[in-house]
Design a protein that fits this description.
3 domains; 19 helices; Rossmann fold
C-alpha cells in the first residue's frame, strides 16, 4: 500500500508510503470503544484520557508504552522516544543511537505508542466521528501525561531531567513538545522533522531529482512519459500485468506508486549498507542498454519489482489505496487511514509533481491528492495548512534547547529547520538551537545505530547531539544548585520553618485552652 508520505522510521517494513480509509457508520457504532488491551511481554499499559481538552469528559483508552532501565545509574535522566505514525515495536529502545546515548549517559529510556496506531486504539472503528480525537495537540498532551505518569511510577529515580526525542513526524512532535511543555523537558532532539506544513509539496520531488545523477533522473522521466503514453493508448492493462498490479484500477494511483518507489530509493538509501543501496539499484537498472525490445518504462518496472521483493510486498499491496483508505476497521498493523486523516486535516505534505523536470507523472497533482482525501473521508476534507503553521510558528519562536538534524539528500529537509532557514542570524543563539545538515544524509539517518563506516558529517551530527545533551544537563544541574542556594530560596525555607513552628505552638495553645475551658465548664455545672 502506497501513499503520499514515505514517512516512517523503525517501522516493520521500512516501505511505507502511507494509505488512508473512509467512514460510513451509525453514531451508535462509532461510539464503540476499544477497551481490551492485549497482553504482550515487555510492554505496559496506562489509562490515557481520550480528550484532554474537555474537562467534563472522563473517557479513557489503553495506551501502550515500553521502558528500559538497563543503563540507568541514578542520573535522574530520562530519554523519551516518541513513537510516530505506526505500530510501536517492542524493541524500539534497542539498536539505535538513542540506545547508545542512554548507555553513555546512564539514562532511563521510555517510549509511548502514538494514539490510534498499533495497539493503542481508542475505538474498534476508525470512522470520521471517531478520528476527531486524532490530532497533534491531543498527541502532545498524551506525552505530557505520560511523562508525569512515569515520574510517579518511578519516584525512587526522581526523573526530573527529561529529554524528548523523535524522528520524522515524531521529530515535529519532539520540537513542538518542548515549545508547548517546556517545564516537562529540558530539551528536544528533532531528527528530520518537517515542521512546516505544506499543501503542494513540489520540493519533495525536486530534491529526489537533485539527489540522482542527471542521466539516471533522465531515464526515470522518460519512463514515466512512456507509461503515460501507454495508458493514453488504452493499454494500461499491459502495465498492470508487467507489475502485478492487476487490482489497481485507478491508473493515476499506479503512476503515483511508481513515483513513490523512486522516491523511496533516495529517501531510505544507505550507501554503507549494501542491501539498502537503493539509489545504485535504481540507477544501474535504469542505465542498462535497451535490448530485445526493452524500453525505459520496462526498466522502471524491473526496478519496481526488485524493490517490492526486497520489501516483501506486492505491487497490489504497495500501490492500492482504496482497500486501505475505505476500511474503517481498526487494526494494529494498519496505519494508512489514520495517517491520511492527519495529512488531510492538518499537514498536507502532498508530494505533487513539479511543473518542470518532474520525476513523477504530472497527473499526480493537487487535485489528485485532494481527491484521495475525499475518497477517504467525504467532501470538504482539505487541510488548512496556514492554521497549523501559524499556531506552531508562534510557539516555536519561544522554544529553546532544540537540536535540529536533517539529511542533505532527504526531501523532507525542505520543510525542516536547516542552516540558513532564518534571515535572523541571531535566532539560533538566542533560542539555544543547534542546527545540523548531514552531507548526503537520508531520512532520520542520525537516529540509526552508529557504524564505523558512517560518514564524517554523520558522526559530527551525532557528536553535536551529545554536546547539546551535555549542555542541557549541565545547565539544569547549575540552575537547580543556584535555586537551592539563592538567598530568596533560603529565606523562604527559613520563613516557612518559622511559620510552621508558630502554627504548631498555636495548635498546642488552642488545645490547652480548649481543655481548660472544658474543665471550667464541668466545675461550673457541678456548682449549679
Amino acid at each position: 500500500m502506497h501513499i503520499f508520505l514515505l514517512y516512517i522510521l523503525f517501522s516493520s517494513s521500512q516501505a511505507r508510503f502511507f494509505g488512508t480509509q473512509t467512514f460510513s457508520l451509525s453514531s451508535e457504532r462509532s461510539l464503540t470503544l476499544q477497551t481490551k488491551a492485549p497482553s504482550t511481554p515487555n510492554v505496559r499499559w496506562l489509562d490515557q484520557k481520550l480528550d484532554h481538552f474537555d474537562p467534563k469528559s472522563n473517557i479513557t483508552f489503553r495506551q501502550r508504552y515500553v521502558t528500559n532501565d538497563d543503563f540507568y545509574t541514578g542520573t535522574h535522566l530520562m530519554f523519551v522516544y516518541i513513537s510516530g505514525e505506526a505500530k510501536m515495536k517492542d524493541n524500539c529502545l534497542e539498536d539505535n543511537f538513542l540506545y547508545t546515548l542512554a548507555k553513555e549517559k546512564g539514562a532511563f529510556l521510555a517510549s509511548l505508542e502514538h494514539r490510534y496506531y498499533g495497539e493503542s486504539l481508542p475505538f474498534t472503528e476508525h470512522s470520521v466521528e471517531n478520528l476527531k480525537y486524532l490530532n497533534t495537540n491531543q498527541a502532545l498532551a498524551d506525552l505530557a501525561y505520560f511523562i508525569e505518569f512515569l515520574k510517579k511510577e518511578n519516584k525512587d529515580k526522581q526523573l526530573y531531567k527529561v529529554i524528548i526525542v523523535g524522528g520524522s513526524y515524531a521529530g515535529c512532535l519532539s520540537a513542538w513538545f518542548r515549545a508547548m511543555y517546556p517545564h516537562l523537558a529540558l530539551g528536544s532532539i528533532s531528527s528530520s522533522g518537517p515542521v512546516l506544513a505544506e499543501d503542494e509539496f513540489i520540493e519533495y520531488d525536486q530534491t529526489i531529482s537533485a539527489a540522482l545523477p542527471d542521466d539516471c533522473a533522465g531515464h526515470v522521466r522518460n519512463a514515466m512519459k512512456e507509461m503515460e503514453a501507454t495508458i493514453d493508448n488504452g493499454k494500461y492493462v499491459e502495465l498492470q500485468k508487467a507489475s502485478g498490479c492487476d487490482k489497481v484500477e485507478d491508473n493515476v494511483d499506479f503512476l503515483s506508486g511508481m513515483g513513490d518507489m523512486v522516491a523511496h530509493a533516495v529517501q531510505y538509501n544507505m550507501d554503507n549498507e549494501p542491501d539498502k543501496a537503493y539509489k545504485d539499484l535504481l540507477c544501474s537498472t535504469m542505465s542498462k542498454p535497451l535490448v530485445n525490445g526493452e524500453t525505459e518504462s520496462s526498466h522502471l518496472l524491473e526496478f519496481f519489482n526488485k524493490m517490492t521483493e526486497k520489501m516483501d510486498t506486492t505491487c497490489n499491496e504497495f500501490v492500492s489505496l482504496d482497500p486501505v483508505i475505505k476500511n474503517i476497521t481498526a487494526n494494529k498493523l494498519e496505519n494508512g487511514r489514520q495517517w491520511t486523516w492527519q495529512t488531510c486535516n492538518e499537514f498536507g505534505y502532498f508530494q505533487t509533481a513539479p511543473p518542470q523536470n518532474s520525476l513523477r507523472s504530472t497527473r499526480v497533482n493537487l487535485d489528485y491528492y485532494h481527491g484521495i482525501c475525499e475518497r477517504a473521508f467525504g467532501p470538504g476534507r482539505i487541510p488548512d495548512v496556514s492554521k497549523i503553521n501559524k499556531y506552531f510558528k508562534e510557539r516555536n519562536s519561544l522554544a529553546t534547547n532544540v537540536i535540529w538534524t536533517n539529511g542533505g539528500f532527504d526531501p523532507w529537509s525542505k520543510l525542516g529547520i536547516t542552516p540558513g532557514s532564518f534571515k535572523d542570524d541571531g535566532r539560533e543563539a538566542r533560542q539555544n538551537w543547534k542546527i545540523r545538515l548531514i552531507d548526503k544524509g537520508s531520512h532520520c539517518t542520525d537516529l540509526h545505530s552508529p557504524k564505523s563506516s558512517d560518514s564524517e558529517s554523520l558522526k559530527e551530527a551525532r557528536n553535536a547531539i551529545r554536546d547539546a545533551v551535555n549542555e542541557w544537563l549541565t545547565n539544569a544541574s547549575r540552575d537547580k544548585e543556584m535555586t537551592t542556594k539563592h538567598p530568596l530560596f533560603v529565606s523562604g525555607v527559613v520563613l516557612a520553618s518559622i511559620s510552621l513552628v508558630f502554627m504548631i505552638i498555636a495548635i498546642v495553645l488552642c488545645c490547652v485552652c480548649s481543655s481548660k475551658k472544658r474543665k471550667a465548664m464541668k466545675v461550673y455545672q457541678s456548682l449549679q
